[in-house]
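User: quick one - fold this with 5-thio-alpha-D-glucopyranose bound?
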Amino acid sequence: MASDAYQPKPEHKFSFGLWTVGNPGRDPFGEPVRPVRPPVELAGLLSEVGAWGVNLHDNDLVPIDATPSERDKIVKDFKAACAAGGLVVPMATVNLFTAPVFRDGAFTANDPAVRAYAVQKTMRAMDLGAELGAKIFVLWGGREGTETDACRNPEDAVKRLREALDYLCEYSIDQKYGYKFAMEAKPNEPRGDIYMATTGNYLGLIPTLANPELVGVNPEFAHETMAGLNFLHAVAQASEAGKLFHIDLNDQVIGRYDQDFRFASANAKGAFFLVKFLEESGYDGPRHFDAHAYRTENFEGVKDFARGCMRSYLIMKEKAARFAADKEIQAIVKDIATASAAAPTVGKYSKSGAQALLAHTFDRPVLAAKNLPYERLDQLTMEIIYGVR
Ligand code: GLT
Ligand code: MN
Ligand code: MN
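Assistant: Sure. Structure tokens for the protein plus 5-thio-alpha-D-glucopyranose:
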């Protein structure tokens, strides 16, 4: 590998949200530890560390109570900062969780006026994203859930969510924005329970929408892991369905709060298989880091954090290439997928094929005796990850 193999380049499509490198380190028990930096300064930081893209919520850039002229000035300055730093804005999203008006949810709130406000706020965030060139619109329903199910019938919540998504798709079509919507699931936090708890929930909802082709998912490593799930499997199912429109990379230990750690800092094995999958599956969307620096860090530490995310991704990418080129590993991978005995293939159903399958006698002991050296395979994989192979 060339010595600059771990150097981020635009072709890697590494992006960060303004809210990630701008995170001031507030937590439920503590005040901010870093000053809030203006978006133009954060764009400067991202350009300095070698990122390709910057993403934002409407209110990461434009305060919720800004006047139209204040908004226009902020957007103009931010566009100039992005241009100066060579940054693109691939994705935009909307904050439907910070303001007290969303304490009972946004699209699923019981108050129809709150639901209408949430849709209006999203339309304006779509206008903003389109103005900045974004083609992906993420929706994370952080408040779309409950502490007590006495407050509403969960079926109504699903219907309200569908109504809002159908409306927003039509708005995108009407305005010719060309957005792809990427739905982001999370099991809980900040609500006790969130309705769309996993990526799988969204994959079930999407085919019921009026414009399903416009809507996919934005799985987050931390969120599926919080639910104790295998993130790679969720990503793979989304990808296979043609629904992997965006991805939130970070790290997380099972059973903890939403940690949003630096990518590959807690679970190197999970990160390895994920990067291997993204690089080999043909995914060509942004590699977005939705993470933030430890609360111990100052502004320089935030740069260390951002550089670390990208560097670890590229290290894992190199290791995936090593796995693909490893003769012993590839021989095992080939052998474990080879039939242990002659058998009819299943494939697509036909009457004659079904008859042949029903007529075949399988030798169960022969099938059960096939060598599956997964211990050896995993050890070899781990030695690549550990850096000794
Ligand atoms: C928030 C959340 C993230 C979402 C962002 C998009 S905001 O920080 O924790 O997982 O991706 O709304
Ligand atoms: Mn998160
Ligand atoms: Mn996220």
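One thing worth noting: The chain has 15 helices and ten strands.
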